[in-house]
Design goal:
The complex is a heterodimer of chains A (about 120) and B (about 110). With about 120 residues, chain A is mainly β. Chain A contains no helices and eleven strands. By secondary structure, chain B is mainly beta. The chains are: A mainly beta (about 120), B mainly beta (about 110).
Chain lengths: ~120, ~110
Protein backbone atom coordinates (compact mmCIF):
# COMPACT_ATOMS: atom_id res chain seq x y z
CA UNK A 1 0.00 0.00 0.00
CA UNK A 2 1.52 3.27 -1.14
CA UNK A 3 1.48 6.07 1.41
CA UNK A 4 2.38 9.72 0.99
CA UNK A 5 3.21 12.17 3.75
CA UNK A 6 3.69 15.92 3.43
CA UNK A 7 6.13 17.75 5.66
CA UNK A 8 7.36 21.31 6.03
CA UNK A 9 6.80 24.57 7.88
CA UNK A 10 3.22 25.43 8.76
CA UNK A 11 3.90 29.16 8.77
CA UNK A 12 5.68 31.19 6.09
CA UNK A 13 6.19 34.94 5.97
CA UNK A 14 4.96 36.98 3.02
CA UNK A 15 7.47 37.32 0.18
CA UNK A 16 9.39 34.26 1.38
CA UNK A 17 9.54 30.79 -0.20
CA UNK A 18 7.19 27.99 0.77
CA UNK A 19 8.92 24.60 0.80
CA UNK A 20 7.24 21.24 1.26
CA UNK A 21 8.40 17.66 0.88
CA UNK A 22 6.35 14.57 0.17
CA UNK A 23 7.79 11.27 1.37
CA UNK A 24 6.56 8.17 -0.42
CA UNK A 25 6.49 4.80 1.35
CA UNK A 26 5.27 1.38 0.32
CA UNK A 27 6.67 1.74 -3.17
CA UNK A 28 9.53 3.27 -5.10
CA UNK A 29 9.05 6.68 -6.66
CA UNK A 30 11.18 5.39 -9.53
CA UNK A 31 9.01 2.40 -10.37
CA UNK A 32 6.23 2.84 -12.87
CA UNK A 33 5.65 5.75 -15.15
CA UNK A 34 3.70 7.81 -12.63
CA UNK A 35 3.26 11.52 -12.16
CA UNK A 36 3.91 12.75 -8.62
CA UNK A 37 1.77 15.77 -7.95
CA UNK A 38 0.95 18.68 -5.70
CA UNK A 39 -2.50 20.15 -5.10
CA UNK A 40 -3.72 22.84 -2.76
CA UNK A 41 -6.99 23.93 -1.22
CA UNK A 42 -7.42 27.33 0.46
CA UNK A 43 -9.54 27.15 3.62
CA UNK A 44 -13.18 26.70 2.68
CA UNK A 45 -12.41 26.80 -1.05
CA UNK A 46 -11.89 24.46 -3.95
CA UNK A 47 -9.03 22.30 -5.13
CA UNK A 48 -6.26 23.59 -7.36
CA UNK A 49 -3.77 21.45 -9.27
CA UNK A 50 -0.29 22.89 -8.76
CA UNK A 51 1.87 20.65 -10.89
CA UNK A 52 3.59 17.30 -11.15
CA UNK A 53 6.85 15.57 -11.87
CA UNK A 54 8.01 12.23 -13.17
CA UNK A 55 10.90 10.38 -11.55
CA UNK A 56 12.98 11.35 -14.57
CA UNK A 57 12.59 14.97 -13.50
CA UNK A 58 10.17 16.04 -16.22
CA UNK A 59 7.81 18.66 -14.80
CA UNK A 60 4.47 20.18 -15.73
CA UNK A 61 3.15 23.23 -13.91
CA UNK A 62 -0.11 25.12 -13.53
CA UNK A 63 0.39 28.13 -15.82
CA UNK A 64 -0.90 30.49 -13.12
CA UNK A 65 1.88 29.44 -10.73
CA UNK A 66 4.65 28.59 -13.15
CA UNK A 67 6.73 31.71 -12.62
CA UNK A 68 7.03 31.04 -8.87
CA UNK A 69 7.06 27.26 -8.81
CA UNK A 70 9.66 24.52 -8.70
CA UNK A 71 8.90 20.84 -8.22
CA UNK A 72 11.81 18.47 -7.83
CA UNK A 73 12.37 14.80 -7.10
CA UNK A 74 14.96 12.97 -5.00
CA UNK A 75 14.78 9.31 -5.93
CA UNK A 76 17.44 8.35 -3.38
CA UNK A 77 15.18 9.55 -0.58
CA UNK A 78 11.93 8.52 -2.30
CA UNK A 79 10.71 12.09 -2.00
CA UNK A 80 9.52 14.91 -4.17
CA UNK A 81 9.33 18.56 -3.20
CA UNK A 82 7.55 21.82 -3.85
CA UNK A 83 9.01 25.30 -3.70
CA UNK A 84 6.76 28.31 -4.21
CA UNK A 85 8.46 31.68 -4.09
CA UNK A 86 7.23 35.19 -3.25
CA UNK A 87 4.23 33.93 -1.33
CA UNK A 88 1.29 36.06 -0.25
CA UNK A 89 -1.75 35.42 1.93
CA UNK A 90 -3.46 34.02 -1.17
CA UNK A 91 -1.09 31.05 -0.98
CA UNK A 92 -2.48 30.03 2.41
CA UNK A 93 -3.94 26.57 1.87
CA UNK A 94 -3.88 22.90 2.71
CA UNK A 95 -1.27 21.41 0.43
CA UNK A 96 -1.67 17.80 -0.71
CA UNK A 97 0.77 15.54 -2.48
CA UNK A 98 -0.61 12.72 -4.59
CA UNK A 99 0.36 10.05 -7.08
CA UNK A 100 -1.23 10.05 -10.52
CA UNK A 101 -1.25 6.27 -10.57
CA UNK A 102 -4.72 5.23 -11.72
CA UNK A 103 -3.87 4.91 -15.38
CA UNK A 104 -5.61 4.03 -18.62
CA UNK A 105 -3.72 3.71 -21.90
CA UNK A 106 -4.14 7.44 -22.47
CA UNK A 107 -4.46 9.15 -19.08
CA UNK A 108 -3.68 8.93 -15.40
CA UNK A 109 -5.57 10.14 -12.37
CA UNK A 110 -4.60 10.59 -8.71
CA UNK A 111 -5.13 7.44 -6.68
CA UNK A 112 -3.03 7.88 -3.53
CA UNK A 113 -3.01 11.13 -1.57
CA UNK A 114 -1.24 12.47 1.47
CA UNK A 115 -3.32 13.67 4.40
CA UNK A 116 -2.57 17.30 3.58
CA UNK A 117 -0.70 19.97 5.50
CA UNK A 118 -1.89 23.48 6.25
CA UNK A 119 0.50 26.25 5.31
CA UNK A 120 -0.35 29.73 6.50
CA UNK A 121 1.29 32.79 4.99
CA UNK A 122 1.41 35.50 7.61
CA UNK A 123 3.87 37.87 9.21
CA UNK B 1 -6.91 28.55 -17.36
CA UNK B 2 -10.21 29.40 -15.59
CA UNK B 3 -11.88 27.13 -13.09
CA UNK B 4 -14.74 24.95 -14.23
CA UNK B 5 -18.20 26.08 -13.07
CA UNK B 6 -20.18 23.99 -10.61
CA UNK B 7 -23.21 24.84 -8.48
CA UNK B 8 -22.06 25.83 -5.01
CA UNK B 9 -24.54 23.59 -3.26
CA UNK B 10 -27.20 20.97 -3.83
CA UNK B 11 -29.39 18.93 -1.54
CA UNK B 12 -31.50 15.83 -1.75
CA UNK B 13 -33.36 13.39 0.43
CA UNK B 14 -32.27 9.81 1.03
CA UNK B 15 -33.21 7.61 -1.90
CA UNK B 16 -33.46 10.48 -4.34
CA UNK B 17 -31.17 11.19 -7.29
CA UNK B 18 -29.21 14.38 -7.81
CA UNK B 19 -27.10 15.65 -10.68
CA UNK B 20 -24.12 17.99 -10.38
CA UNK B 21 -23.14 19.93 -13.46
CA UNK B 22 -19.66 21.06 -14.43
CA UNK B 23 -19.32 23.59 -17.21
CA UNK B 24 -16.05 24.30 -18.93
CA UNK B 25 -15.02 25.44 -22.36
CA UNK B 26 -14.02 23.96 -25.68
CA UNK B 27 -10.44 24.09 -24.41
CA UNK B 28 -11.00 21.67 -21.55
CA UNK B 29 -14.25 19.73 -20.95
CA UNK B 30 -15.35 20.07 -24.54
CA UNK B 31 -11.98 19.19 -26.01
CA UNK B 32 -10.98 16.08 -24.10
CA UNK B 33 -12.61 12.95 -22.67
CA UNK B 34 -10.49 13.27 -19.55
CA UNK B 35 -13.06 14.52 -17.07
CA UNK B 36 -12.90 13.20 -13.53
CA UNK B 37 -14.95 13.65 -10.37
CA UNK B 38 -13.75 13.61 -6.77
CA UNK B 39 -15.55 13.21 -3.46
CA UNK B 40 -14.14 14.96 -0.42
CA UNK B 41 -15.37 14.56 3.12
CA UNK B 42 -14.45 17.27 5.67
CA UNK B 43 -10.82 17.13 6.69
CA UNK B 44 -10.05 14.32 4.27
CA UNK B 45 -8.18 14.02 1.01
CA UNK B 46 -10.21 13.83 -2.20
CA UNK B 47 -11.24 10.43 -3.56
CA UNK B 48 -11.46 9.61 -7.26
CA UNK B 49 -15.06 8.64 -8.11
CA UNK B 50 -15.18 8.93 -11.91
CA UNK B 51 -12.46 9.08 -14.59
CA UNK B 52 -12.43 9.34 -18.37
CA UNK B 53 -15.85 11.06 -18.21
CA UNK B 54 -17.92 7.97 -17.38
CA UNK B 55 -15.76 5.25 -15.80
CA UNK B 56 -15.81 4.18 -12.16
CA UNK B 57 -12.69 2.97 -10.35
CA UNK B 58 -13.06 -0.40 -8.72
CA UNK B 59 -14.76 -0.09 -5.36
CA UNK B 60 -16.87 2.94 -6.24
CA UNK B 61 -20.59 2.32 -5.97
CA UNK B 62 -22.57 2.01 -9.19
CA UNK B 63 -24.91 4.62 -7.71
CA UNK B 64 -22.40 7.09 -9.13
CA UNK B 65 -22.61 7.71 -12.86
CA UNK B 66 -21.46 10.49 -15.13
CA UNK B 67 -21.73 11.86 -18.63
CA UNK B 68 -20.68 14.74 -20.85
CA UNK B 69 -22.36 16.81 -23.51
CA UNK B 70 -20.39 19.51 -25.25
CA UNK B 71 -18.67 21.69 -22.67
CA UNK B 72 -20.70 20.38 -19.72
CA UNK B 73 -20.05 17.26 -17.69
CA UNK B 74 -22.46 15.84 -15.15
CA UNK B 75 -22.27 13.55 -12.13
CA UNK B 76 -25.41 11.75 -11.02
CA UNK B 77 -25.78 10.09 -7.65
CA UNK B 78 -28.79 7.82 -7.41
CA UNK B 79 -30.34 6.37 -4.27
CA UNK B 80 -28.80 9.10 -2.10
CA UNK B 81 -27.37 7.90 1.19
CA UNK B 82 -26.24 9.83 4.23
CA UNK B 83 -22.61 8.89 3.49
CA UNK B 84 -22.81 10.69 0.15
CA UNK B 85 -22.90 14.03 1.96
CA UNK B 86 -19.61 15.61 0.93
CA UNK B 87 -18.02 18.11 -1.42
CA UNK B 88 -17.72 17.06 -5.06
CA UNK B 89 -15.21 18.43 -7.54
CA UNK B 90 -14.97 17.98 -11.25
CA UNK B 91 -11.69 18.22 -13.10
CA UNK B 92 -10.64 18.26 -16.73
CA UNK B 93 -7.44 17.91 -18.64
CA UNK B 94 -6.78 21.15 -20.49
CA UNK B 95 -3.63 20.88 -22.58
CA UNK B 96 0.07 20.23 -22.27
CA UNK B 97 -0.41 17.88 -19.32
CA UNK B 98 -2.27 20.46 -17.21
CA UNK B 99 -5.49 20.10 -15.23
CA UNK B 100 -8.25 22.43 -14.06
CA UNK B 101 -10.80 21.94 -11.31
CA UNK B 102 -14.30 23.17 -10.61
CA UNK B 103 -15.07 25.25 -7.57
CA UNK B 104 -16.78 22.37 -5.84
CA UNK B 105 -20.38 21.48 -4.94
CA UNK B 106 -21.45 20.91 -1.36
CA UNK B 107 -23.98 18.08 -1.32
CA UNK B 108 -26.33 17.93 1.65
CA UNK B 109 -28.42 14.84 2.29
CA UNK B 110 -31.52 16.05 4.06
Amino acid sequence: QVQLQESGPGLVKPSQTLSLTCTVSGGSISSGDYFWSWFRQPPGKGLEWIGYIKYSGTTYYNPSLKSRLTISVDTSKNQFSLRLSSVTAADTAVYYCARFGYCTPTSCYPDYWGQGTLVTVSS
Amino acid sequence: QSALTQPASLSGSPGQSITISCTGTNSDVGAYNYVSWYQQHPGKAPKLMIYDVTKRPSGVSNRFSASKSGNTASLTISGLQAEDEADYYCSSYTSSYTWVFGGGTKLTVL
